[in-house]
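Notebook entry, structure prediction.
Reason for the run: the old model in the group folder had no record of what sequence produced it. Starting over properly, with the input documented here first.
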Amino acid sequence: MEFAKLLEKAGEYLPKEKLSIIEEAYEFASERHKGQVRLSGEPFMEHPLQTAHILAGLQLDASSLAAALLHDIPEDTGLPIKDLEEKFGPEIAKLVDGTTKLGRVSLTASGSVPGATQAENLRKMLVAMAEDLRVVFIKLADRLHNMRTLDPLPKDRQLKNAQETLEIYAPLAHRLGIWELKWQLEDLSFMYLKPQEYKQIARLVDASRAQREKFIDRAIRILKKELEKVGIDADISGRPKHIYSIHQKMERYEAGGKQLDKIYDLLALRVIVKNVQECYGAIGIIHSLWRPLTGTFDDYIASPKPNGYQGLHTAVMCLGTTPLEVQIRTAEMHNVAEYGMAAHWSYKEGGRKHVEFEERVGWLRQLIEWHRELAGAEEFLESVKTDIFIDQVFVYTPKGEIKDLPKGSTPLDFAYRVHTDLGHRCIGAKINGKLVPLEYQLKNGDVIEIVSSKSPRGPSLDWLNPNLGFVRTTHARTKIRQWFNKQEKTESIERGKQILDKELRRLGIQTERQALAEMFNYQNLDDFIAAVGNGNITSHQIVLKLAAQEEKEEEVPAPVVPAQTVPASVRVLGVGDLMTSIAQCCHPVPGDKIIGYITRSRGVTIHRQDCQNVINEDEKERLIPVEWRQTDLNYPVKIQVEAWDRVGLMSDISTLVAEQKVNITSMNLANGNGEQITISLDLQTTGLAQLSDILKKIDTVKGVVSVSRVGGEKLKQSSAGSPVGAKKLKNTGSSKKKVEGNLGK
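New structure, fully documented this time:
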């Protein structure tokens, strides 16, 4: 009987007198759920029973196990919490109530759950955690059993639950250090979200099992013999790699252009020794026995992870040419690694809270404190996902204090973590005694010294630009935005006008400022421009908004020269598929407002709505509404760079463009005044957003004075070779023929 197994498992670590409350809770829950069945057809009581089993595996206290057995009663039987409190006491009733409330919230964004609601729900969960972590232990166990029995649910609910589990619950288990739950939640989510990839990796692991086990057995025998020579009696075993972790490694390898070895990259050992001294002794033996791989040694004993994890990690070339990962821990460290904060649960010790446990939930207390400073619920959600639920790096202050920051953090993130004023006055940073750029990504063990100005100063607006990579954490971004919000609004408006004008001029876009403000839900134009000036709205966000905006305007004119045919990229409204081509006079790209011009023999030519050839066209009846389609095609666009001539300028620009995976189809150079030159480039871009990124990056090249898109307002060559402007064409008696000549009829 399943309940007998639960009592047996709980009896391994709980005193006998504590088991009676578990028995009472089981009998009460069985009676209340009598006759209820799950979608799978099994008795409903199976779910709370399996939830309690999972918690017993984590060695949670009797109150937690009782609450797990009772946690669905208020929701599914309608029994009030106060009735549970009368029967089982306030502690268990509070745990059930907390778990029930968490069960009612959705933590993933969907059509029915807006981002603000999602963030607010996550906030409630974390606040509940801060009050009593056992609520979240119960919720994690509840979610794990639900994921194990997800098949009877409709496909859309399967995917929603799997996504929510992978985004929130698995990272939460990781942050709490409960590896045993983390890997199961990840693998089950991955199985539903990407079933084909899951099966492929599972087959790979299974196919290599015999050869892998043979190699591991040989490595264990050799290592055990060497450790025994120095008096270290170690428990050595092969460490299984889980499906999702293999998938993540494959993605990292593919990103780096490597191929995953079908067998050996799945090899790992775990070495359990008696004490810390033997941990370091064992790592010395391993490194003398097999060559360590560069940059793979991590000492989490000297610098534990925020979730309490400790151990030594390394990777070696074992038995010649085979990579082997090794983890070394004491038995106590191993217990913490598998069960995390549950292994330190203070309720096991009669409710005495100890310093070590409080330190390990310090990140949670800090998060709850931070949320009071954040502007809104979405910003809180962003903070959780970036500052809490991703991997950490551990760095040192010059005085030797350890700080943990999200992986990918920069010296500016570190400065703002130490003190807000230090961040505001930061002008540089030294890592391990050497000056580094502010966008440098911190590594484990770095010693960071912030170089600050003595006089008061503020942050740079560039620090908020996500493309430049100056800050990674929401905490730092919030502090920077707060500084700009305190500045005079008139200064922000002036700065915003300059940023807006520069960006739109550079992209060659003409748009009403008020219309742009309304895209961002600002009715007052000054408020919108001030938001641009103080960094709440970045130029990158403006470009993305323009690129995504659908063409709503009615008529607008258009003709010009033929270009590449793009049948799948543009849709002609009101008719079936027609042959379309991109006009070479104005080179529209996705994100531009466009109009079609019906030619006599080449289908429809696509122009920007502000193209001079379109504006000055006489036969308005030949203009037709069109819109962009989603496509992977590239679009031609012309840009012009004004710069001071120097050796290597052309090389620097072409290299930068190539790094962005953008093709240059032509490049022309013209001498300007004195030492200034003009460079004309024809590029192939995917749309307005990519074009904006390219222009910004070229603008940072040494010697560049300005860079902008070349629009259709420039003079064009007629088919006869003489320069003919759009207005000139309009005023000649044979203008229609000349225009059609440009269009190829």
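Summary: DSSP finds 31 helices and 23 strands in the chain.
The old model has been moved to the deprecated folder.
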